[in-house]
Specification:
Number of strands: 12
Oligomer: single chain
Number of helices: 11
Strand content: 15-25%
């Protein structure tokens, strides 16, 4: 068994096609097929069911490939330790970001990284929290930006900033007359929310009146969509503080602060417990610190670098 064979079975699992997997690994199809078969013989198991089109993994094959991903991740970590000692920071970093954070961070993060660290290949995927956690645990992501706490023992959370929630209210609603709105008295009537699976949906219902009464129902997939729905149909929604700059001057007149207490979400950079790319981690953290308003940044990050 060698590292190449582990890379080949991971690639074959990804593409489910021998030729495409071989191309991704820059080897010939016969070479890849031969080494995968040798690994199966060595382990005395069948990793891939070749009778189906596309090919698929066997039950034991799924477990082998999952472990292979972790091994390859740890090998990459070992290489990173060596690079770190040479004071060089380069290579690829894979980041997952939740949809209710992505619009406010990603455009400027790409610009910041391309300007200050062009040698780093940033690969970012937008996905929901449950998917991100699963991919982190499988070593398919290096880090993630999402709402915390997560209460996962195998994951380390590094708080980045704290963001207030605000109400975006149609002028047709009685709430519009209020200068401030008590968060715990928010009704669920005419409340437009994110669809199931978004952590912000759960946070909204944690401080709203929980009576399940909706005069209109549409579970949207983005904050921008919710705002537009309120503009056209009335009602109200809850938006994060960083969405304010994306509103027009007219739309900002529809925003109302929440109080008693002010609902806030914690946004963190999340990594596996065995993550070792400390310098890379701090490069990402420092880039985000330049994007987020200073008053929102976690007080510890203002003073200290992240130490693993």
């Amino acid at each position: 068994m060698n590292i190449q064979q582990l890379e080949y079975i991971v690639a074959l699992d990804k593409y489910r096609h021998f030729v495409k997997a071989a191309e991704s690994c820059n080897v010939s199809q016969p070479t890849l097929s031969s080494l995968v078969q040798k690994l199966e013989h060595e382990l005395d198991i069948t990793i891939f069911d070749r009778s189906t089109h596309p090919i698929r993994t066997t039950e034991i094959g799924d477990k082998i490939i999952a472990q292979a991903r972790v091994i390859l991740y740890n090998i990459a970590q070992l290489k990173e330790m060596t690079i770190h000692e040479k004071d060089v920071c380069m290579g690829q970093i894979r980041i997952g970001v939740i949809p209710t954070v992505a619009p406010y961070i990603l455009p400027k993060l790409f610009k910041q990284m391309h300007s200050d660290n062009p040698q780093i290949d940033l690969k970012v995927s937008e996905m929901r929290t449950a998917v991100i956690i699963d991919m982190l645990q499988k070593a398919q992501l290096d880090m993630a930006i999402l709402a915390t706490p997560l209460e996962q023992d195998d994951i380390l959370e590094i708080p980045l900033y704290y963001e207030k929630f605000l109400a975006y209210v149609s002028p047709q609603e009685n709430l519009y007359k209020e200068e401030e709105i008590d968060a715990h008295l928010l009704p669920t009537e005419n409340l437009w929310v994110l669809k199931e699976g978004h952590c912000m949906r759960n946070q909204v219902f944690n401080f709203c009146d929980t009576k399940p009464m909706f005069s209109s129902t549409y579970e949207a997939g983005s904050i921008d969509t919710l705002v537009k729905i309120v503009d056209e149909n009335g009602g109200y929604t809850i938006i994060p503080e960083l969405h304010l700059p994306l509103l027009s001057n007219e739309q900002r007149t529809n925003v109302r602060p929440l109080k008693e207490p002010v609902p806030v979400r914690e946004i963190s950079l999340v990594i596996r417990n065995d993550f070792v790319k400390e310098r890379m981690l701090n490069i990402i953290v420092n880039a985000i610190k330049k994007i987020i308003p200073e008053e929102m940044i976690d007080t510890r990050l203002k003073k200290f670098a992240v130490k693993l």
